[in-house]
Amino acid sequence: MAPLRFAANLAWLFQEKPTLPQRIEAAAQAGFRAAELGAPYACSAEELREAADKARLELVLLNAPPGNQDGDRGLGAVPGRQHEFQEALALAVKYCKVLKCPRIHIMAGRIPLGAEREEVSAEMEATFIENLRYAADILAQEKITGLLEPINSRITDPRYFLTTPEQAAAILKKVGSPSLKLQLDIFHCQIMDGNLTQNLEKYFPIIGHVQFAQVPGRHEPDSPGELNFPYLFQLLESMSYSGFVGCEYKPKEGTLKGLGWLHSYWKSHGVLDSGS
Fold first, then answer.
1. Would you give the distance in Å from CA 54 to the centre of its chain?
2. How far is residue 245's CA from residue 239's CA, in Å, rounded to a whole number?
3. Going by fewer Cβ within 10 Å, which terminus of the chain is more open, N or C?
């Protein structure tokens, strides 16, 4: 079985470095051959492309702009802001083309303050489907995959609209585009539903990207917690998962000090100096 390909999420890892170009360099020096950028828009796409080329690092995922900084967490399912969604998508696509990045996480957004989830769910889903159909046509032309990530509402964000793989799968089915896939973060999935073996198997056909962190602390996979990551990594290998696995966790005592799990994984799979 081929080893998994790990990508450093630079919104979480290598925070010891103040800028994204520096984090790109640090990730490559640590042995990574791929990275996720989160929100890269404070830097120019050209600056990031230069840094990635110099480091020989593949950029595999970025988030579309999340909206305003005063509480938005995406615009995909937010009624009345379709024009802003389209502008945000256009900027993300522009960055992807310069960065040669093939995936965009399209964030759904949050339920309005004071509203009950049941009251707004139908309207927000209809808005999400409308926006995703718009996005799918553009992404198909550019050969970019759009990703939907459920985020748990129990610990991380009680107001986030998209909370489970089941909900995401139903929306993807209604949109009906091969340009859109599920981004399954094992951390969120465990908190909302558990049953990870069956969920990974059930949703595997629509998974376009995987991320992880230990539960409940959201730290390294070998930190104390609920999840058996050697088993989960082996499960993904047995399923011939060929995509990237994003390391989206909070290092407990510094990024480099917490990479022992990764070096052990590489060593056990005969990978000497990289995650590719």
1. 24
2. 14
3. N
| E strand map for 91-158 | 103-105, 145-148
What whole-number percentage of the chain has pLDDT above 90? 96
At 122-170, the pLDDT tens digits run: 999 999 999 999 999 999 999 999 999 999 999 999 999 999 999 999 9
Q: At what angle do helices 20-29 and 45-55 cross, to 10 degrees?
A: 20
Q: How many CB atoms lie within 10 A of CB 209?
A: 22
Q: How many domains does the chain have?
A: 1
Domain assignment present for residue 276? The answer is: no
- Quote the pTM value: 0.96
Within a domain: residue 274?
no
Distance of CA 41 to the CA centre of its chain: 16
CATH of the domain at 114: 3.20.20.150
Distances (CA, A) of 54 to 38, 39, 51, 58: 20, 21, 5, 11
Which residues contact residue 186 at a Cβ distance below 8 angstroms, ignoring those fewer than 6 apart?
196, 210, 211, 212, 213, 227, 232
Tokens representing residue 258 in the block: 């917490």
Provide the domain limits for residue 197: 5-268
Q: Which residues are catalytic, by number? A: 149, 248
In a domain? residue 19: yes
Angle between helices 45-55 and 82-99 (to 10 degrees): 30
